[in-house]
Amino acid sequence: MDIKQYLEQKRQDVDRFLDSVMPPESAPPANLHKAMRYSLFAGGKRVRPILAIAAYEAVGGASPFILPLASSLELIHTYSLIHDDLPAMDNDDYRRGKLTNHKVFGEAMAILAGDALLTMAFDLVSRPDLVNGLDPRSQVNVIQELAAGSGNVGMVGGQVADIEAEGKDIDLATLEGVHRWKTGKLIRASVRIGGIAGSATAEQVNRLTAYAEDIGLAFQIADDVLNVTGTREELGKDANTDASRGKKTYPTFFGVDGARKLADERVASAIAHLTDFGPKAEPLRELARYITARKN
Amino acid sequence: MDIKQYLEQKRQDVDRFLDSVMPPESAPPANLHKAMRYSLFAGGKRVRPILAIAAYEAVGGASPFILPLASSLELIHTYSLIHDDLPAMDNDDYRRGKLTNHKVFGEAMAILAGDALLTMAFDLVSRPDLVNGLDPRSQVNVIQELAAGSGNVGMVGGQVADIEAEGKDIDLATLEGVHRWKTGKLIRASVRIGGIAGSATAEQVNRLTAYAEDIGLAFQIADDVLNVTGTREELGKDANTDASRGKKTYPTFFGVDGARKLADERVASAIAHLTDFGPKAEPLRELARYITARKN
Questions:
Q1: Mutate to test the interface with A, among B82, B130, B156, B174 (most CBs of A within 10 A)
Q2: Contact A160 B109 (CB under 8 A)
Q3: Three-state SS at B44
């Protein structure tokens, strides 16, 4: 299969869906909707929604209700980027090659746009007109995955741990703990949501979860490597920022080559968990390979 | 009935429940959990959870699953206060007589504590161990009410409209629009959630909604009046801040006595919507009366 074509097609599906459910910029409160759309359509790769869709299809799912479920993950991811970029947090001026949300709309609006995107994620997954045909019990389970993956012992907790680790001489276990929460839990939720929505068996959900945990770590290691090796043009943001901030990363512990090797091992392990899934899981396998091959 | 006793008992039920589900301060990430607990247990009256419980009981509900549903509203309310108080928003130092969250924990942690509380609201309402016995279809409908009431065309949208109206010469219709979103939508959601969880008929939900819209407006008018007439001790925060900020409020348009009269009319209208509900709705009626009689 052609993973680039798959990614492009699914990205378009997700973008089209998101555009159809996001209020237009002219609808009041107009400035809020402008700020929400600005970051939501700033060129994201839609990795999390695509993981959810690929997991859904891997277990045989084929209904359009996967789109609101999958897209909710992008709303959560986008809100987290807006809040992470704030002056009180990472104080970043650029994201994906564009000015960050608060640089364009001001701090108050950026905080509120983040809050509204987070809330809209839960709106999407509970809308009766959009999630049509999924049994309500599975729907509640999807919502639980989304909340647990992005909250105090998920993504938000990981951001706290990341802030607290900055500038400190942390060990590898602490670094892994930060990543497992900050990026790992939402990736895990993405894949599990796809499985649950596709009526996967408990055994299948377990294997998808193991796959997700492996690619979550590989994703983060690859990000750390890209921060060292990527250019500003490739990344769409400043390069080598971790080192200049004195942040410990995988390349700090293992060097760039050692970190790359670790990521490759995780990808191989992820793919091994999918042995019993057959050809429908090919996109999931290719996605795992893509994670370490990407340039941004 | 003794409304004060009712309020005190339900407040204790909600507080006990919230304490049981909130991670202890020692659980990592400890600073996040400390910040979340700090604002959550800062002496809130639990008006929204109690409205949900009272509406639930008014339609005959009697299961403990109402507690996670009702308490989720307090998590949303608390997060909104933390974010509203931030330097980029209202820049308030005190709330309920205590230092605001960011004054104690710093701005980054206050933003994240708000994010985590918002997310935890959706965690609570989707947890299978807590929401036990409610049919999943109603559970999804409850989640939809919660999301719609607190998002871009609900509470967050109202905060945006409020910020944009500040210092401007707005008319009464704009003022009412701000309130209908900023406080009205979550109060409306509270009452509707109680009704939906209690398997209310469509007609009952409509009447509860009309009741909620009336008391939502009465609540805001009473708040505006208290801002003029209350003391720092009674309010637990600075008094007369609206006037010093040049903010237009109900007393600006109608004077204190005129505003009080308007609030009383709304309370009477709210109670009239409950005519068919019988004695089980007595707490809802007393709650409506309490809104304009309270001192903080």
A1: B156
A2: yes
A3: coil
Cβ–Cβ gap B146/A106 under 8 Å: no
CA distance B2 to chain A (A): 37
Q: What percent of chain B has pLDDT over 90?
A: 87
Q: How far apart are CA B31 and CA A35, in angstroms?
A: 30
Structure-token pair, residue B185: 């939508």
CATH: 1.10.600.10, 3.40.47.10, 3.40.1010.20, 1.10.238.10. Which one for A3-293?
1.10.600.10
Cβ separation A161–B28 shorter than 8 A = yes
3-state secondary structure of A182: helix
Identify all chain A residues contacting B153, using CB atoms and an 8 Å cutoff.
23
The structural domains of chain B, with segments of one domain joined by +, span 3-293
Q: What is the b/e burial string over A259-296, where b = at least 16 CB atoms within 10 angstroms of the residue's CB?
A: bbebbeebbebbbebbeebeeebbbbbbbbbbbbebee
CB contact under 8 A, B31 and A160: yes
**How long is chain A?**
296
Q: Tokens 């009697």 sit at which residue?
A: B62
Q: Does A116 touch chain B (CB under 8 A)?
A: yes
In angstroms, what separates the C-alpha of A210 from chain B's closest C-alpha?
22
| Contact flag B128-A151 (C-beta cutoff 8 Å) | no
Of all residues in chain A, the one with the smallest CA distance to B22 is: A152
Q: What is the pLDDT of residue A296?
A: 67
Strands (E), chain A: 94-95, 98-99
Looking at CA atoms only, how far is residue B235 from chain A in angstroms? 25
Is the pLDDT at B170 greater than 80? The verdict is: yes
* DSSP secondary structure letter of residue A138: H
Q: How many interchain CB pairs under 8 A, A with B?
A: 157
Query: Tell me: the pLDDT tens digits for B56-92?
Result: 999 999 999 999 999 999 999 999 999 999 999 999 9
Say what the ipTM of the complex is.
Answer: 0.96
Tokens coding A213 = 């945990």
Run means of pLDDT, 10 residues per run, chain A, 296 residues: 94 98 96 98 96 98 97 98 96 92 98 98 96 97 98 97 90 94 97 98 98 96 90 73 81 95 96 97 96 76
C-beta atoms of A120 and B144 within 8 A: no
